[in-house]
């Protein structure tokens, strides 16, 4: 039986939706999972079951929110006939051009439609090194980040690629459109990153604590829009691989990624964006396909939605 968890609301929670409140308190579960619990009567507010996920909290009165999480069924990837763009493959590695909106592997609230499921249908097997729910996965991209992702086909390849990531010999280059003018043409962000102690769905670089993180950037273009909005188009190289690293570092510098509302940017309506402007453009690695495997560079061109947003910014000068 799952353990009942009790949370008390604070003044800052006034007016907040019940499902949003619980998802902040239980970030390991998806919002859809929390909503399922509410509908099933597994959540009580001041001792009474609440049927609506959108129920608003008073916040100031120290309301008691009790939740009894349902036991999760074991997660396992399975083959699904889903389109997937493979841009490189050899006997050891597959490089995929991941579409924005596609989740990499199964998890809470994401059982179907994942990249791993698509690859299992196309290739049959992947490395078991990361377990039943994410075979072949040695690194990740956020759901709304597009671009190049490496997948290991064999256990030996998985170990070799994992070692390259740990030794930081894999070069990962991204393209990002950020708010404001980044003053220096080149530079680094090196603040440590940890989970935000207040909003648990985010990471933060503002506490001075956390894991060592290093992000390098180069300004490709700067824009002054006719509406007064300023943007910078960046090439970004990751030297470490922390969760949301680029998003956190540029936001901490006062330049959040366009349409990245989680980290303080406005919505992407004026740019025609339905997701943040971040794209994994290029990755360079040593293929484990042979003992002296070649150094391989794989590129993904900027996808159409981001090209259109960039064109809008250029035309607004």
Tally of extended strands? 15
Which percent band covers the strand fraction?
Answer: 25-35%
Find the CATH topology of the largest domain. Pseudouridine synthase
Q: How many H/I helical runs?
A: 6
- Major beta-sheet overview: 9 strands, mixed
Report the top-level CATH class of the largest domain.
Alpha Beta
CA-based gyration radius: 21 Å
Mean pLDDT: 90
| N-end to C-end Cα span | 60 Å
Question: What this model shows, in words?
Answer:
Strands 5, 6, 7, 8, 9, 12, 13, 14 and 15 form a nine-stranded mixed beta sheet that branches. The chain has helices spanning 18-25, 31-39, 115-123, 155-166, 245-252, 304-315, and strands at 5-8, 43-45, 48-49, 64-67, 86-89, 93-98, 146-152, 171-179, 186-189, 194-195, 203-204, 215-224, 230-238, 278-286, 295-299. The relative contact order is 0.12. It is of the alpha+beta class and 317 residues long. A hairpin with a 2-residue loop joins β2 and β3. The chain folds into three domains: 5-67, Roll (Structural Genomics Hypothetical 15.5 Kd Protein In mrcA-pckA Intergenic Region, Chain A); 75-167, Pseudouridine synthase (2-Layer Sandwich); 168-317, Pseudouridine synthase (2-Layer Sandwich), CATH 3.30.2350. α1 packs across α2. 18% of the residues lie in helices and 25% in strands.
Give a brief description:
The chain is of the alpha+beta class and 317 residues long.
Notable characteristics:
single chain; 317 residues; alpha+beta; Structural Genomics Hypothetical 15.5 Kd Protein In mrcA-pckA Intergenic Region, Chain A; Pseudouridine synthase; 3 domains; nine-stranded mixed sheet; four-stranded antiparallel sheet; 6 helices; 18% helix; 25% strand
């Amino acid at each position: 039986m799952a353990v009942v968890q009790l949370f008390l609301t604070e003044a800052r929670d006034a007016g907040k939706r019940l499902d949003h409140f619980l998802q902040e308190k239980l970030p390991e579960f998806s919002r859809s999972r929390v909503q399922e619990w509410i509908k099933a009567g597994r959540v009580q507010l001041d001792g009474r079951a609440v049927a609506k996920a959108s129920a608003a909290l008073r916040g100031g009165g120290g309301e008691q929110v009790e939740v009894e999480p349902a036991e999760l069924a074991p997660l396992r990837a399975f083959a699904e006939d889903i389109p997937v763009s493979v841009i490189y493959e050899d006997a050891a590695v597959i490089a995929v051009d991941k579409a924005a909106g596609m989740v990499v592997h199964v998890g809470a609230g994401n059982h179907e439609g994942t990249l791993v499921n698509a690859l299992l249908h196309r290739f049959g097997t992947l490395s078991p090194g990361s377990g039943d729910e994410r075979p072949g996965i040695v690194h990740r991209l956020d759901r709304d980040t597009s671009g190049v992702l490496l997948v290991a086909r064999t256990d030996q390849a998985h170990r070799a690629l994992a070692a390259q990531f740990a030794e930081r010999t894999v070069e990962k280059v991204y393209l990002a459109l950020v708010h404001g003018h980044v003053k220096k043409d080149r530079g680094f962000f090196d603040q440590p990153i940890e989970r935000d102690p207040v909003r648990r769905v985010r990471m933060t670089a503002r506490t001075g604590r956390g894991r060592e993180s290093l992000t390098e950037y180069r300004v490709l273009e700067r824009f002054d829009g006719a509406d007064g909005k300023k943007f910078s188009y960046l090439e970004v190289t990751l030297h470490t691989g922390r969760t949301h690293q680029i998003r956190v570092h540029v936001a901490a510098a006062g330049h959040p990624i366009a349409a990245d509302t989680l980290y303080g940017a406005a919505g992407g309506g004026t740019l025609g964006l339905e997701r943040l402007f971040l794209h994994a453009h290029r990755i360079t690695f040593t293929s484990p396909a042979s003992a002296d495997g070649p150094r391989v560079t794989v590129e993904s061109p900027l996808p159409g939605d981001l090209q259109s947003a960039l064109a809008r910014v250029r035309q607004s000068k």
